[in-house]
Amino acid sequence: MKKIGLFLGCNIPFNRPDVEYSIRYLLNELGVEIVELEGATCCPAFGSMPSLDVVGWATASAWNLTIAEEKGVDIITGCGSCYGSLNEAKYHMDKHPEIKEQVNKILSTVGKEYKGTSKVWNVINYLYEEIGLDNLKAKIKYNLNGLKCAVQTGCHNLWPSKAYPTNEDNTFNPTRMREICEALGGVAPHYSTITDCCGMGALRSQASAKSLALFKKKLDVIKEEIDPDVCITGCNSCLMQFDAGQALLIEQKKLNYKIPALHIAQLVAIALGADVEKATALATIPLNGVITKIKGGN
Amino acid sequence: MAKIGVYVCHCGENIAGAVNIEEVVKYSQTLPDVVVVKNYVFMCSDPGQDLIKQDIKDGLVDRVVVAACTPRTHEPIFRDAVEAAGLNRYFLEMANIRDQDSWAHWHDKSGATEKAKRLIKSAVAKVRLAEPLYDRYGDVEKSVMVVGGGVAGMFAALDLANMGLKVYLVERQPSIGGNMIKLDKTFPTMDCSACILTPKMVEVAQHPNIELITYAEVDEVKGYVGNFDIRVRKKARYIDWDKCTGCGVCTQICPARVPNEYNFGMDQRRAAYIEFPQAVPKKAVIDAPNCLYFKSLKKTGKPACEICKKGIPPKGIQGCPADAIKFDDKDEYVTLKVGAVILATGYKVMDKTHFKEYSPHSPDVVTAMEFERILSATGPTEGELKRPSDGTKPKTIAFISCVGSRDERYHSYCSKVCCMYMFKHARILKEKYPDIKLYLFFIDVRTAGKDFEEFYVYTKQLGVKVIRGGRVSAVDVKPNGKLRVRGFDVDLCSPVELEADMVVLATAIEPPEGTEELGRLFAATCGREGFLREVHTKLYPVETAAKGVFIAGCVQGPKDIPESIAQSRAAAAAAAALVIPGKIKFEAIISEVDRDKCSSCGVCVPLCPYNAIRLEEYKGKDKAKIEPALCAGCGVCASACPSRAIVFHGYTTEQILAQIEALTEV
Amino acid sequence: MEEVTVNVIDLNQCDEDFIKQLIELGAEELKECIQCGKCASTCPMALAGLEFFIKRIIHAATLGLRDILIEDPSVWACQSCNRCVEICPMDVKPYEIIQAVRRAAVRVEACPASTYEGLRNLYRFGHAVFPKGFEERRKKAGLPEKPPTALSFDELRKKYQEVLKQTILEEIAPFPLD
Ligand SMILES: Cc1cc2nc3c(=O)[nH]c(=O)nc-3n(C[C@H](O)[C@H](O)[C@H](O)COP(=O)(O)OP(=O)(O)OC[C@H]3O[C@@H](n4cnc5c(N)ncnc54)[C@H](O)[C@@H]3O)c2cc1C
Ligand code: SF4
Ligand code: SF4
Ligand code: SF4
Ligand code: SF4
Predict the structure, then answer these.
(1) Which of C31, C38, C43, C99 to mutate to test the pocket of ligand 4 (most atoms within 8 A of CB)?
(2) Which of A33, A173, A180, B588 could be joined to A3 by an S-S link, Cβ 3.0–4.6 Å?
(3) Which pTM value belongs to this model?
(4) CB proximity C141 to B under 8 Å
């Protein structure tokens, strides 16, 4: 039986635990044993340790990586920042022995050592490579029934590509999420701003209005070019922008349409028969239409 | 009676797409003396040409009209074909029914067809009256003159000399070397300029086939391609170069001091001087206007000083040990016969005084060329970086690009080498003084050239600051002697200012003095910006409008050393290709004077753009005579001659009238 | 009355030590930037209309304009999206330059309050992002109130704090690391 260490980070367990529920659900359904990474912390977020120095960043990341290493498992995360921060820290340490050395000097004082043996996966790549589309197809309970999805892989899931163990063939034309949606029975057309940043993150905290304006520009293109039933994100931060951020724009009367949003883990979990209440517990924009369409198909 | 064949080309769809070929063919058959009319898809292809050749060989036709494209590109092909089949090559006429017809009237098919008929009719009318013409050949002098002894002139001279040709290298200054010898290091390889150039200068001086004539200028040019007679004025040196050993004694004892042009006046030389330490030939000259001997002679009628000659006996100082001083020296003239000429007179840089907004009165504002001398070990500071005003070492230097270039008030062109030498200066300085602060103000950075972009990035890595969009608007002198530079930084999107210790202006490269006059002597023309002009930028980059006169190096336009050398060697090859065969072909299509008809009015003489016409005695009267070697076949004289005494072979008056008639007949 | 200043940048402000510091803090390729603008045409900061966006930040850094960079909060709005790193033709790794500027700024306490808040949360709870009311949210999703992270294991959290104390955080944190 496959095993994987579930790395939660901060935003998923505290802001969107419904995504955590979904990841847990889908891994279970797909027969992957979840190994809890007890004592794991923040990845750390880019505005924290990475903004102090490389060694501090790498040390904080290595704390998390070693938990998985000790249990002999790879790591999966549903958050783009965690995926980026952990992989970049890993890249720094694997590329520069002197950084690794300094990190291990610190870690040794608490009896730990970073070796570099655990890979860090995101949900997209894990589904695509480790589970496989055919396998996934075989296991779904509810077909998406032609549900039209606008996918948002998310910057951190794509770049910097050289820090990542696996990736899209062309990170400027990502297709993996589209293929997953289509394997579930949905339609996921390409659109011209597919790799644009959603605006969530530091920009949202430092310049909220500008961040939302950037998001709106992207959403308008999505609406105009493919007019989807739902937006599917590969990153939890993107989900927060697409869902709560969008609701904010609506509240501010800056948007006159509404597109519900789900994390890819939520979508897969629902297709695999998850409890919709739990799997979408924290969505701000109602998902009724989406759920009906999925459930209606069977 | 002529037997004319008309061959109509479709040029694929180019002609056939607009002109009704069948109709044109039928029409052509009705024209006088036309015996054969054929058409083919590509007349210039081998099978197309064979159609014509076969008809000639079969005796069917003895005059040919090809109705096709432009004679500019295709006439030689068809002339060759006609000649190969045994006809005189001038028994061919082309009717341009493509460029002047089908292309121009693409949307008016019937109009185009009518016009094609007219054009063919006119060509037929002309070829009926064609006379056989024969190319002529003349002898060529197997020697070349190179004017200008910079790097371009030197390489051209060496290549030609190595091919076994006699070369006269004429240089205005006492020494060869040009601007390159003044440079410190050279981009992109950073070789020391003098180190790579002096061996070449010596090679030039010692080459048995090169006659080096320095301190001299071209005075008069006679003759024409293959046979130039050029008079060169060797300026009086007041020192007998046969005796002078270059010991330098005179240059040390001479009491008359003047600003040293070689270092742009940043130090002094004597009236008796050797241009620079590595000069080739290493000979002294006396600069008469500044020499006390001549000054006194002029003023009082009596000479004075003569220290260089006699020394200062009371102090035990000897004069010239070689007894070379020759106050009665005179300009000397030599006339040289050459088959071709290469003009390689280079460039000069603009003076800073033009740029009033940059405080040119401050000695700390210098041109880039002056800065080369400041950097050079043989320069006024012996290579030590010093501020001209107070001799202190500058900590911050600003470099300003495009000073006088890309500026409609001075020169609209880009001087091409400045971006690169600015980086070169920065690199030399940063490698010597890592802490020096250097700000380079560009409009934009232009580093197109082999290894240039890499040079730029490398220099940036040394910590050199690059300000783009930063054309400086003002340099002001502050009370503390520093210079405040005001620019704009497009990347910061803000006006910026900088307090600098020195400012280096990358002033424009210009044609050297006398370029236009030099060009006129040789009948070579200058472009709008004053550089000598090539005949065709792409196809004939080293030839001038004057046959047998070639150009190389910066006198053709700003360029760097690699490009100057490449061009000079190209010019050498072109000149060699002209003189080595020893024979030259003169066009058959030229004008000729029927001297019995000539009324001696002389209107034609000044009209000829190639100076080919002279009045010469004939039967006791001055009559016009056209030198066939000089005539370019333009026809101006023939159309101007009031006595109709000039025959323009290939375009006789009868032929032209017949054409007009054919075209206008209704 | 609002103070009116003239809009000219004095290039003599150039602080070479600041440039050296940035390079040490990770801006290794800083001087390779040729200001081609490729990063700026894709950077979310630029697209969102921040006045100081990636290309300008890099240029100001090469000019050693320390005060301008330290005072302007733009670097803190970088998304860390790394798109610039992916596309920069000179491999400048623009994002690393953002981080270097941030690192220089925190050393003189020039960062937004939220940065300290995140660091404090990271140290105290093991989570830089630690929003209130998560227990409720977790219940809605049918999950236990606390996730199995350092939050749930006091011993492990202490150990983590031991680790953090040996990093740069020790020098920089404006709050007590007990
Ligand atoms: C500041 C500066 C720095 C430069 N640095 C570099 C560099 O690092 N690398 C590089 O590749 N290029 C550099 N260049 C360009 C380089 O100087 C030229 O490409 C090169 O010198 C051109 O050679 P030339 O023989 O065409 O002209 P010149 O060197 O000008 O030679 C022309 C010669 O003709 C003589 N002459 C002029 N008129 C007459 C006349 N009427 N009769 C007889 N003789 C005459 C002159 O006295 C001179 O000796 C630099 C240019 C400048 C301005
Ligand atoms: S002193 Fe006489 S030999 Fe010596 S350089 Fe002068 S002229 Fe020539
Ligand atoms: S005569 Fe006197 S001034 Fe003239 S060159 Fe000789 S030494 Fe100099
Ligand atoms: S960082 Fe890279 S992409 Fe951005 S301007 Fe500089 S060279 Fe161009
Ligand atoms: S990582 Fe930062 S600087 Fe680079 S493109 Fe993204 S937001 Fe801009």
Answers:
(1) C38
(2) A33
(3) 0.84
(4) no
